[in-house]
Design a protein that fits this description.
The protein is α+β, with helices and mostly antiparallel strands. It folds into 2 domains: 144 residues, Sandwich (Jelly Rolls); 73 residues, Orthogonal Bundle (Arc Repressor Mutant, subunit A). Helix content is 45%, strand content 23%. It is built from 8 helices and 11 strands. A 4-stranded antiparallel sheet has the order 1-8-3-6. Helix 3 packs across helix 4 and helix 5 crosses helix 8. The longest helix is centred in the middle third of the chain and has 27 residues. It is elongated. The termini are far apart.
Length: 221
């Protein structure tokens, strides 16, 4: 891994010693995963620190009944710390990390990152910032679930997916949408059919077409 590329992932790079920088460079391993691949599964799985080079990862959690809900996504130059959960023994937060699209990423071994956190205040502070940022995203999500009606949440989700894909045509099943939003497929189906009756979307098998994004934006607000 090149020095220049690794710097992009660590804003505190220049605060590390040359020896620490070299250990990171030597240990970083480039891997690839196809869309749909599970990369990390729960707190007992300590894969290592993920540095996303390209693609899109989905971080989600499971209820006791097996229902999924997406917590956040990770994109190019994002870092996934929860895939190295063994470096944070005090945080009991089981998540699953999935390659949502074909992705390339670097893995830094958990043991190395743990050692560097103990050696370097800059690395420890950086890790704390990552944790704080992700928990802020999770708390925002919980706020949406608790206080925002489902029609508004679904409208916002569809608009965000359209922006991510750069298209009003979304290849998403009702089951997949339900998994993202932590609800039952039947709930999603009923609301999408309502959206369709109002002319905001058109439904076809395995796909949703946004036909009136302006009205969806009004609803999401």
């Amino acid at each position: 891994m090149s020095n220049t590329e690794l710097k992009d992932f660590f804003p505190i790079w220049n605060k590390l010693t040359e020896a620490q920088q070299q250990r990171l460079l030597t240990a970083a391993e480039l891997r690839s995963a196809k869309g749909g691949t599970i990369l990390h599964n729960g707190s007992m799985d300590c894969l290592g620190l993920l540095l996303i080079r390209s693609g899109q990862l989905r971080v989600y959690t499971l209820s006791s009944e097996g229902r999924e809900i997406t917590l956040y996504r990770l994109f190019e130059l994002d870092t996934c710390l929860f895939s190295a959960s063994c470096v944070m023994p005090d945080i009991q937060f089981d998540v699953v990390v999935e390659a949502e699209k074909d992705s390339d990423f670097y893995i830094l071994p958990s043991c190395l990152f743990k050692d560097l956190m103990e050696e370097s205040a800059a690395i420890a502070n950086y890790a704390n910032q990552l944790i704080s940022s992700r928990f802020s995203e999770v708390m925002w999500l919980m706020d949406q679930i608790m206080w925002k009606s489902f029609d508004k949440r679904l409208a916002k989700f569809l608009l965000e997916e359209s922006a991510l894909e750069g298209s009003p045509s979304l290849k998403l099943t009702h089951e997949r949408i339900a998994n993202h939003m932590g609800t039952a497929r039947e709930v999603v189906t009923r609301m999408l059919r309502y959206f369709q009756s109002e002319g905001m979307v058109t439904l076809t098998r395995g796909a949703v077409e946004l036909t009136d994004p302006a009205r969806l934006e009004q609803l999401a607000e």
